[in-house]
Give the backbone structure.
Amino acid sequence: MGILQQIIFAILAIGSFYFVSKKVKEIYQNIMMGQKETITSDNAFRLKKTLLVAFGQQKMFKRPIAALLHLVIYVSFVITQIELLEIIIDGFLGTHRILYFSLLKGNFLGDLYTFVVSSIEILSLLTFFVTIAFLWRRNMLKLPRFTKSELLGWPRKDANLILIFEIMLIFFIFCMNTGDKALQLIDPEKHHETGNFVLSTLLAPSLATLPEMFVHFIERLGWWGHIIMVFVFLNYLPYSKHLHVVLAFPNVYFSRPEPAGHITNMAHIQKEVASMFNPDAVQEETNEETPMIFGAKDVHELSWKSLLEAYTCTECGRCTAMCPANLTGKKLSPRKIMMDTRDRMEDLAKGRREHGPDFKDNKLLLGDYITKEELRACTTCNACVEECPVNISPLGIIVELRRNLIMEQSDSPNEWNNMFSNLENNQAPWQFSPQDRLNWVSELNG
Amino acid sequence: MSDYKVPVMAELAAEGKAPEVLFWVGCAGSFDQRAQSVTMAFVKILNNLNIDFAVLGPEEACSGDPARRAGNEFVFQMLAQQNIATLNMYNVKKIVTACPHCFNTLKNEYPELGGNYEVVHHSTFLQQLINDGKLKVEGGEFKGKKITFHDSCYLGRANDIYEAPRAILEKLDAELVEMKKCKTKGLCCGAGGAQMFKEDEPGNLRINEERTNQALEVQPDFIAVACPFCNTMMTDGVKGKDKQDSIKVFDLAEFVAKANKY
C-alpha cells in the first residue's frame, strides 16, 4: 500500500473518530442531564445480567425465529471486528494482512487466521441472507409491530438504511477477500499466499481470469469500500436506532434489581408526609439535597437511567406488540414513549448547538411529545418491561410523567379525583367507611 | 349455621396475644361484593385448618397501590406510613393477602419506608399448606372440568409467581388449559395502574373484552383468577359475552373451599 493511501486512510480514520467522539460526548451530556438515581444492584447481579441478557441475548429468544436471525448478525458483527482491527492496522502502517504475516504465518496460528477469516466469510454470507429476510419482513410482510404510526418517516428509513449498510459491508468484504485470492492466483510471486478462506477461494478462480489491473481494483474497492462503510456507519450510529449495538451493554449492566412490580420511592414526599404525621420528630439532616420535583415534565427531570434507555432502544416494538392498551386500540405505545424521550433530548441538543448552552424552547416532553391520553391508558402491567430484550422500562418514564400530571399540574380525571379523596378520607378507593370493613363477617356467619 | 372465627388484631392485642399470620383483606376483599365471597372462602379455609390468624378490620387502610400508580405519591405515602405504623405497633411478622396489588406493595414498596414483613400471596400460602400436607384438596364439583388460569400481572410479571396458582388448580383433578397468552406473556385484565377506578381511554375494545375472548378460545368451564380486580374484569367480560351461565369465574380460594365443601 502506497504512502498516499496511508495518508488518506489516516485522515479518514482520525476525522471519523473526531466527529463520532463529538457526538458521543453530546449523547453523554444528554444522559447526564437526567436526575441522579442509584442503581442498587451488586456486581454479581450486573455481571450475570450482562452475560445472560446482553451477551447471551436471553430475552431475544422469547421469539425464537427472530432471535436466531438476529444472532447470526450479532455473531457476525462481533467476529468481523478481528478483520476490522487488521484493516485499521494495515491502513495506518501501509501493511497487508499484518495479523497473518507478522504474527501468525508459519505456525498453528496461521491456521487459526484462516479459520477466523473463513468463519467471517460464512457468517457474512448468512448475514446477507438474514438482512434480505429482514428487509422483506419490514417492507413486504408488514408485521404489525413494524407498521405502527410511530415508525412512519425517519424511523422506517433508518431501519432500512442500517440493513442496506450491512449488505454493503458484506459485499465489500467479499470483494476484498476474493480480489486478494485472485491476485495470489494470477501472480504468486508478487502477491504472497495468505491462506485459503472457504468462500473467497471458491470465487477467486473465475475472478482471476480477468485482467490483473481490474482484479487489483476489485481488491482495493473491497478494502476501501469496507473501511469507508465502517467509518460512515460509525458516524451514523449515534443518530440511529442502531446505537443499541453499543448501549445495550451498559444499559443491561445497570439493570434495576428490584422486582418489576416495584415503583421508585419519592424520598422528599416520604419525609414531608412523615413530618406531617409526627411534627416533633427530629428531621434527619442529610448532606444530600433531595430534588423537590414532582415526577417529570421534561427529559432533565427523568432519571439518567431512563435517558440511557431511550438511547438504547432499537425500536423493535416487542413492547408495543404486547401492550394491552395498544392491542385494544388505545394511543399508548411503549416504544413511542422511548422514541419521544430520545427525540426530545436530540431536539434540545440541536437547540444548544445552534443557540448556545442556555437554549430553551416552549416545548416539554409531557404534552408536546407524549400526550396525557397515552399516559392514562397504561395499566402498569409490565408487559413492555418483560418483553424488552435489553431491559428497558417504558413504565418507569410513564410513572414519572403521570406523577407530574397529578402532583404538579393537578391534571387528573374526575374519577381519579374522587378516588384520591376517598383514599384520603376513608382509606379506601370507594366511598365506604373504615368501620364497615368487617361487614362481610356477618354474612359469613349468617 | 356456621360459626367461623375472624379474630381482630386490636382485640387479640388487648388479650396480650399475637397471631401467627395477619390476613390482609384489602379494600376489594372488604367492600366489593364479589371479592367479599373470596375473603369468606379464604377465611373458611383458615378456620378449617385451625390457622392462627387475625385481621386488622377498621385499622386496615388501602395499601396505596392505586394512588402511587395513578401518580399521587402524597396519598400513597399517607396510606403506606399509616399502615406501617399500625403493622409495626402490632409487631406483625407475617402477612397473607388474596390481592396481588396489596401483596406487591406490602412486599416490595413498604420495606424502604420501614415496613419489613414476610408477605405472601394466598396462592403461595395455599400451595405451602398443600405441600406440608395440612391442606387436602379433592376435585369435588371440579373433577374433569376444564379450567383456564388468568395470570394477574402483579403476581406474574411483577413478582414471578406463575406456578403456585397452577399447582393448586392441578389438585382439583380438572383439565388445566392454558390460554395462548399466559404466564410472562399473559394479557392484563385491564384494571391495573388505577384503571379500575376510571373510564378507559378511547380505543377499539376494552382490555377485559380482549382477555375474555382469549379465555373463550380454549372453551373453559371455569376461569380461575387470583386477584379481586381480575375477578371483576373477567366476570364482566364473561357477562358481556352472555356466557355467565356456562362459564364461571372463581378465585383460587373459592375453588379450594368449594371443592372441599367448606
